[in-house]
Amino acid sequence: MTNSLIISKNYANYLYYFITKNITKRLQLTNLRLSCNEYATTLFLGSAAQSAFFVGSILGGLIFGYIADHCDRIPALVACNAVDFIASVGTAFCNSFWSFCLARLVVGTSFDNCFNVLFIIVIEYVSPKYRTLVANMSFGLYFAAASSLLPWIAYWISNWRILSMVTACPMVVAFVGPWIVPESARWYITSGRVDKAIEMLKNFAKVNGKEVKQEVFDEFEKSCKAMNEKDQSHNQYTVLHLFKLPRLGRITIMLIIYW
C-alpha cells in the first residue's frame, strides 16, 4: 500500500492527502493500518515537506525583502503573490514526493510576504489612532474567518489537487494591485523621488477631503531632500548590513531560526 502524507499548509490550515507513488484518491490515515515503520516513514516525509515550506519562507523573506527595498513595494507585492499562485497550481500536478517538496518550497517563499508588503503600506498611510482597527483587526478577522471556512471547503472538495488550485485563486487579486494600491511614499522619499511622494500625499489629502497648504508640502520637500543629502548611503544598504554588528547579527539569526 502506498504511503499517505498529511501536509498542513501553515497559513491556511488545511490538509493535503498525498500518496507518494500513485496519487489516485483521498485516503483516511486511520484506515491504512500502517505498520510502525511505514507510519514512522509517513511522519518523517510529512515533516520533510513542511520543513521545505519554511526553508522557502526564509529565502522568500530575503528575496522579496530586497525587491521591496530596491524596486518598489508594489512589484514585490505582485511578484510574491504571482509566485504563490503559480507554485500552488503547480503543486496540484506533482507526481512524486520530491517534486511536491520543491513546489512547497517555492510556495513557502511567498509565505508572509504575500501580505506583509501590503500591511506595511497600510501602516504607513493610516494614523496611529486607526491602525489597530484598519490594520491589525482587519487582518486578524480575515485570518480567523478564512481559517474557520477553509476546512469546510477542503471537506466539501475532498480532492487535494483541486483544493490546491482553488486556494490559489485569491492570489490573482494581487495582479490588479498596481491600479488600486498606492505606492509607499516613504519608499519614494528614501529613493530620492520626493516629488512622487508629495504627489501621492496630495492625492490622499484630496480623497480624505483635507486641505493642506502648499507651504506645508514645500517645507516637507526641503526636509526630505536635506535628509537624503545628509545620508548618501541610504540606498546602499543590503541584507549583509544586518550582520555588520555582532549583536545585530546574533539577533537576526535568532529571529530567522525562531520564525
From TrEMBL:
One of its GO terms (cellular component) is membrane. Residues 1-259 form the Major facilitator superfamily (MFS) profile domain. The chain crosses the membrane at residues 43-67, 133-154, 160-181. Keywords: Membrane, Transmembrane, Transmembrane helix. Gene3D superfamilies: MFS general substrate transporter like domains. GO terms for molecular function: transmembrane transporter activity. The keyword Transcription does not apply. It holds the Pfam family Sugar_tr. InterPro entries: MFS_dom (IPR020846), MFS_sugar_transport-like (IPR005828), MFS_trans_sf (IPR036259). It is a multi-pass membrane protein. It is found in: Membrane. The keyword Flavoprotein does not apply. This is Organic cation transporter protein-like. It comes from Bombus vosnesenskii.
